[in-house]
Amino acid sequence: MVNSRLLALLAVPAALALPLARPDEHSLAKCDIHFEKPVVTDPEELKSYQPTQNDDGGSTTTTSSSSSSYSYSFATPLPQSPSSGSSTAGTSTYQCFSNGNYPAPSTWLSFTSLWSLHASAITTANSAVSAIDTGSVSGGGSGSSTTTQILHDKILLVASDTSVDARLILATILQESGGALDAPCTGTGNCGLMQGPPGSASYDGGSGDAAASIEQMIRDGVQGTPGTWPNGGPGLEYWLDVYGGDEPWKALRAYNTGSVPDGGDLSVTNGVGTESYVVDVANRLVGWDGVQRGSC
C-alpha cells in the first residue's frame, strides 16, 4: 500500500503547476468607467439633491478614442518617502489618515498659522511674477504689494463671500499649484491656482489688473465655471454642499476626480486623479509642509 503521506507530498507540486485563471473579456469590460449622469449644477436641483452610494453627482471617465476623456483636477505629484506610516521632515509630520480619523476642523491650524508656514514657499514660487500695483494707499501716493500678499487677501475675500473655509481654500491651492500664480493648465482646461473646472482662468498678469486675475482663479476653483461638463463645471463649494461642509473629505475626493468612487475608501480614484489627494490636503490643514509624503 502506498503511504498516504507520500501521496500528499506528490500532490503538492501538481497543484502548484495548475495554470492561474485569467479574466475573460466580459470581466475586463466591467472595469470601464462611464458617466452615470450629468453633474447637477442648478441651485434649485441642488436643494433636493440626495447623493447615494452609486450616485455621486457626475463622474470622471477615461474612455475609448471615440469619446472624450475628462479629468476634473490633478495635483502635482510629490516625492514619495521610502518610509512606511508617517514620515517626518523637520517639524512636519505626514499622517496616514483614513475614514473615521480625518482631522476635525477644530484641530486644523488657523489660517494665520497655515499662511505663515507656507508664505516663504509661495513667495519663492512667484519670484518671477512682478509686484502688483495696488493704486493709491492711505496717506496719498501709490504703493505696490507682492503677489503673495494679494493672494492672501483674495483667499480671505472669496472665503467671506462663500461658505468655504479660508483654510481649506489655501490647502487646496497648495495641493494643486503650490501657490504658483502661473501654474500651467492640466487635463481638459483645468487652470489656475486651484486647477479648476473646464473654462477656469489662468493668471493674466498683463491684463492691467493682476489682482482681479488672482481673484478670478480662486473664484473659479471655489465657485465653479459657467456651463456643464465638459465645457464648465462645479467648484469646491458645490461639492461641499453635496457632501457636507463640516467633513470636507468626500468633497475633496470629488473635486479631484469628479466623483466619489468609493465612500469607504477615499484613496480610490478609478484611475483618474491622485490617490493621496484627500490625505495630502488633510495633512496640509494640520501643518504638513508638503515636502515629504509618508507612504500609506
Automatic annotation (TrEMBL):
Keywords: Signal. InterPro entries: Lysozyme-like_dom_sf (IPR023346). Residues 42-65 are annotated as: Disordered. It comes from the Eukaryota. SUPFAM superfamilies: Lysozyme-like (SSF53955). The keyword Signal applies. Residues 1-17 form the signal peptide. Residues 49-58 have a biased composition (Polar residues). This is Transglycosylase SLT domain-containing protein.
